[in-house]
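Minutes, project check-in
Item: structure for the 901-residue chain
Input as provided by the requester:
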Amino acid sequence: MKLVLVDGSGFIFRAFHAIPDMQRDDGVHVNAVFGFCNMLARLLKDHTGTHLAVIFDAGRKTFRDRIYGQYKAHRPPPPPELVPQFALIREATKAFGVPAIELEDWEADDLIAAYAKAAREEGGEVVIVSSDKDLMQLLRDGVEMLDPMKNTPIGLEEVAKKFGVTPDKVIEVQALIGDSVDNVPGVPGIGPKGAAALIDEYGTLEKVLEAAPSMKPSKRRESLIDHAEAARLSKQLVTLRDDAPLPVPVNELGVKAWDAAVLRAFLVENNFRSIRHRLGLEDGVAEEAVEVEHSNAPFGPYKPIYKLEELREIAATARETGLLALSVQTDNPNGLHGNLVGLGVATKPGQGAYLPLKHHVTLDAEPQLPWDEAAEVLNAIFTDVAVLKIFHDAKFSLEALHRAGLATVAPLDDAMLISYAQDAGNFAQDLATLARVHLSHSVKSADDVTGMGRNRVNFAEAPVEKATAYAGEAADVVLRLWGQLKPALRVHKSLALYELLEKKLIPVLAEMEAAGVLVDKDDLSAMSAEFERRMGAFEKQIHKLAGHEFNVGSPKQLGEVLFEEMKLSGGKKGKTGAWGTDSSVLETLAEQGEEIAARVMDWRQLSKLKSTYADALVGQIDPKTGRVHTNFQMAATTTGRLSSTDPNLQNIPIRTEEGGRIRKAFIAAPGHSLVSADYSQIELRLLAHVADIPALKESFANGEDIHARTASEVFGVPMKDMDSATRRRAKAINFGIIYGISAFGLGRQLGISAGEAKSYIDAYFKRYPEIRAYMDNTKEQARTDGFVLTPFGRRCWVPRIKDKIPALRAYAERQAINAPLQGGAADIIKRAMVKLPKALKEAGLNAKLLLQVHDELLFEAPDDEVKAAAKLAQDVMQNAVTLSVPLVVETGIGKNWGKAH
């Protein structure tokens, strides 16, 4: 007999906090249920015993509460999002055909202890699936523990690390140190190290207490004497009762096959499509990929590669399997300029390894492979068309490999983008999150290798053993994720989006990042001084209005000035007792005519622009190239839009004087000019297309002023008599509708009452009923599916569309309305970006694509080619897709971005 006992109650809380929020169709949160099902499915595949049960707590009150009334008294109630998941997890257990066991008045830990004892008495072996420290006391010959999140065993080493003693002494140590979580008193002032030392010296708790009076005078001696009874009580509380009754006899816990229909129905009801695919309960999953994911190999241990023959063996295995997963490690993991330090590699699940290449190891350490020898083997496998190279964030990895002088990698896949193509907005796409969601596995952090805070070292300085555990695991996880996620692309109709758009964009963005853009240092310095001068002028106005000087940049001082000294209305204090002074507070005050609030907003905007651009850009110039190289994030947004960091160029104001001033600092190289190509009103055009609005489609087809046309249609003013104020109202509605603007929001924007703004919106919908239908249908689709689709099939998930909190639900509805439009615009410009490098090359033009900012592309071209480059960019962008309305691209040329924009 091999009995596997799952600590169901313990896992629920870990899964709830580890896995991002998920909701099913009716709004019930199911992230803990999802994690539990993932864990149980993997357990049945990888760690099948002859007998299996999941053990739960039956209730919060047990016999321990009668022993000590304050037992677990400090524990807060479970989060409301978790409460419905308790019952669902019990349903899940039954759907998998596994006994779900609980017993009133007893904790799950006691039942686990009792079942473990019963199984051992019958000569069986026991595996306890839990990471709960309280269960470590049960470890002994024939009784093991397995961490369900990390999928790693817990043995004597882990117990010693936690308690400083062997499992048979854990109870004694726990009695001394107590447990603040469960409100077990223990002995004040005695921690794990002190407790372990006492038990090592005296053997048991009772002997420690007996010896206390004869110990040297100290606070510890006094505490042991004064709290002896508390320690004895604590030992009662922490000791697991292996004499607990067994609700189901151990011999009736034999593993049974699940009922496929029952399990499939449960998984469908809870929207757990990835688990269905993995278990073969839905069509469309390739068997060869499932074999990768279904491997019963544990995560690690992983080994370093120090011999050339070992590297050649891995390359040979990669050629056999046709797969090589890689985890690229650099000495600057957050930037574009890091140097390659080593490679995590995996050809089969569980067989990860690490190739250290540039670690600064000591002389007595194992020597790393000579670079030339390692590079020869790597280049051969990187260029082998029969081996698919798999990354997580391939763009970052390829850039690091290129900087190291290694060969171009092909063919390749990117697990991050595979996930993003079908799950944008559902959860983050970092490796740790994907491992938790899809593999129920917690990966090591880079901090485990480099340390934290003052003790942090560069990755190249880190011990190879730690780097191996981290990078080998990362490559292993990437391989398993690919095995699970790649087949689902076809099922979710996301294969073309990934293969033809996201993956093809990788080299395009890598070239843009490598090219960078020139900035004018002197102009940035002048801009910084200009912003500083204007901030000083605003400060003087603010101080005059306040009646005295104060630190405008201090929210605390500003709050005191506004709401205590000036007695302005609408102030609210936060948890810290300080007055709130965020942008919404200041905007409200400014709308009420409070000039000081308006001036503070002006000051803050300049301050942010000064620090983010005028000052920071100088420090971000690469000394080797003299250019700024932004880092494009391919999987950061819900809608498919790119974002950028270091520097973030997406947040430069578009229509303000300051935004134009910042763009002037981005310049062309000598003999070159910049070309800006910007889609005109692309989201409004998409709205006319997807909502099928004849009047707007006609207007776009005729090249009319869309805002004037809208004003004419809604307000009944002939276009020839249109005044700027009426057109401005129509423009605000046109753009506001895209973002699901409310009457309050529109009123605030136009400086009118919410009632008057509502009358505008009502008139708008009356004239364009197709827009109302589009909005209602889109929200309904989001509620039904959990996601909305762009016109080109991209899934944009809207997790809070059924949230019980009205404000969050309303925000999610606005997201749902806008996502197909913003996401559609992102899809269009990405298609153009994929086509442009080839088109420029075929035209014999030397123009380079430098930047993408929302609906705009920025090129650098030789002066004698600049007009041809602008015309070609316009043609490619306008013909990137075919819609029922024309796409229009406006181009500009200049020696700086400001003039070109």
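Outcome recorded: DSSP finds 37 helices and 23 strands in the chain.
No further action items on this chain.
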